Amino acid sequence: SCGQGSAGVVNGLIFRQLFDKESSTFTYILGDELSREAVIIDPVDTLVERDLSFIGELGLELKFGLNTHAHADHVTGTSLIRNRLPPGSFKSVISASSGAKADVKVKQGSKIHFGNRFLQVRLTPGHTAGCACFVLDDDSRVFTGDTLLVRGCGRTDFQEGDSSTLYKSVHEQLFTLPDQCSVFPAHDYRGRTSSSIREEKRFNPRLGGGKTEKDFVAIMKELKLSTPKLIDVAVPKNMACGV
Amino acid sequence: SCGQGSAGVVNGLIFRQLFDKESSTFTYILGDELSREAVIIDPVDTLVERDLSFIGELGLELKFGLNTHAHADHVTGTSLIRNRLPPGSFKSVISASSGAKADVKVKQGSKIHFGNRFLQVRLTPGHTAGCACFVLDDDSRVFTGDTLLVRGCGRTDFQEGDSSTLYKSVHEQLFTLPDQCSVFPAHDYRGRTSSSIREEKRFNPRLGGGKTEKDFVAIMKELKLSTPKLIDVAVPKNMACGV
Ligand SMILES: [Fe+2]
Ligand SMILES: [Fe+2]
Q: Distance of alpha carbon A242 from its chain centroid, rounded?
C-alpha cells in the first residue's frame, strides 16, 4: 500500500527531524520500519538524552551516527552516544577526506545500511574539505549538511573552505539529483525545516537561478562573517567524533 | 504511483513545517499539488514575509489562514496576510467557540477545503474554551495546536482553561484517531518537530500510559507556570485575528 507520510513513516521509513535552538542545528533520525535498525545524522552533544529517549520510544536500534562534517558551531553527539550504547553496537561515521577520527570513514559512493534501507555518500567539499552529503536509497531525500542550506549555503572562509569547490560540489553532486528530492540541511536560522532540489536550483540566491561560479565566488567574498563562538572548542572535539 | 515524501509532496500534498524561534511556534503550509490551493495554520505576525515568500516560490495560492486558538504567546499572522492578498481571496479561520472575530467561524466537523483536499475540525476545549484541532482528510496528520504537544500539552490555568475538559478532549477527539496519525503541535520547546497518536497514547507523561482524568488534573494543578510575557498584547489582538 502507498506510504501516507503518517507518523513519520513513508514507505517503511521512520523519519524524524529534531532541532537545537542554541546552534540552529537539525538532527535527523532515519529508521527501517521492519528491522527497526536506525541511523542518526548530526546529533548535538547537549541533546543526546533527548535523542536517545526518542529512539527508545520509537523502538529503534541505533547502528550509525553520521557526521556531515567536522562542525565549527557545536560539538557532535556521536562520541557520547557511542559511550552510552553497548560496545561495538554503534559506529560513528565521517568522510575519510575530513581527516577526522571515526569508526567508519566513508568515501564517494559508500553506503551506510540500516535494515533494508541505505544512505549513499556524495562528497561535497567547499564549506570544509571533508564535507559529505547523504542521499537516501530512493533519491527522495538528501541530507546536505552545510553544503546546501534553504536558500543559502555554508560559509567558505575557514576550515579549508573554498567557494569554487563548493559551487562545483553543489552543481555536480546535488543539483543532479531529481527535482522532487527533499533537501534537509544541517541548519536554518529562519525556521525553515526543508527545501527541494527544484526550489534550490530556481531560488537559491547564491547558487541557483543561473548564478555562475564567478557570481558565486564574488558573493561569498562580499560576506562579512564573524568567527563562530565555539570554533576553537568544537573543531578539535569534532575531529575526534568517534573516540 | 506511491507518494515518496519527496520535496514535501506525499500523495499530492505539499507540506511544509516552519518554526518561530522567538515563541517556539510551528506554522504549517499545506497545498494541493494539482490545483495549487493552499492553507496556512498558525502563522506568526513577525514571520509573514518569510511565509508568503515561501508560498510564492512554491507556486501556491493561499485560501485560508487557520488559527488553532487565540494564542497568548505570539500574535497571529492571519490579519497581516489578509491585508497583503487581493481582497476576498484569503479568509481567516477560527472556531466559533473561541469568541474571536474571523472571516470563517468553524464548528465540530466543519471542513476547510483547498483544491481536492480538506482539513476537518475537531473541537478540543481545555487549554482555551475555543481550541480546535484540524485533521487531514485521510487521517494521516492532525494539527493539535496547544491541546496536545509532543510528550506534553498546553497549560490549563488561564484563558478559560480547564484540566478535566482538556483530558476529555484529548481522549475523545484525538486518541480516537489512528495510531499512525502524525501529530503536529503548535509548539515544542525541545526541538522535537512531530509525534504520532500511538506515541502520545503510550508515552505522554500527563495524558498517556494509562493516566486517568484524576491523575491529569492533579499533575496540572502541581505545575507552577509564569504568565506568558506577551499575553496582554497577544490575546486581545488574536481575538480579532481576521480584521
Ligand atoms: Fe559547518
Ligand atoms: Fe496557547
A: 16
Q: Is residue A4 part of a domain?
A: no
Kindly state the DSSP code that residue A211 receives in the 8-state scheme. Answer: -
ipTM of the complex: 0.90
Domain count, chain B: 1
pLDDT tens digits, chain B, 243 residues: what are they? 233 344 556 668 999 999 999 999 999 999 999 999 999 999 999 999 999 999 999 999 999 999 999 988 889 999 999 999 999 999 999 999 999 999 999 999 999 999 999 999 999 999 999 999 999 999 999 999 999 999 999 999 988 899 999 999 999 999 999 999 999 999 999 999 999 999 999 999 999 999 999 999 999 999 988 888 888 888 888 888 755
Q: Which of A51, A220, A32 is nearest to A136 (CA)?
A: A32
Residue B4 falls inside a structural domain: no
A7/B181 CB distance under 8 A? yes
Residue B179: give the domain boundaries. 9-223
Say which CATH number the domain at B187 has: 3.60.15.10
Close Cβ partners of B92 (under 8 Å, ≥ 6 residues apart): B64, B65, B67, B76, B78, B79, B82, B102, B103, B104, B241, B242
Residues 6+ apart with CB under 8 A from A39: A29, A30, A31, A62, A63, A64, A65, A66, A112, A114, A119
A56 contacts in chain B (CB < 8 Å): none
The C-alpha cell of A210 is what? 543561473
Question: Is residue B241 one of the residues assigned to a domain?
Answer: no
Taking CA–CA distances from B198, the nearest residue in chain A reads A7
- CB pair distance less than 8 Å for B196 and A17: no
Phi, psi of B125 (to 5 degrees): -60, 155
Q: H helices then E strands: how many in chain B?
A: 6, 13
Q: Is residue B239 part of a domain?
A: no
Residues A4, B10: C-beta atoms closer than 8 Å? yes
Cβ-defined contact of A2 to B11 (cutoff 8 Å) = yes
For B202, the closest chain A residue by CA position comes to: A57
Q: Do B11 and A20 touch (CB under 8 A)?
A: no
Proximal ligand: closest to the CA of A69: 1
Contact list, B45 vs chain A (CB under 8 Å)? none
Query: Ligand 1: distance of its center to the CA of A225 in Å?
Result: 13
Report the amino acid identity of residue A227.
T
In chain A, whose CA is at the least distance from the CA of B195? A7
CA B127 to ligand 2 centroid distance, Å: 7
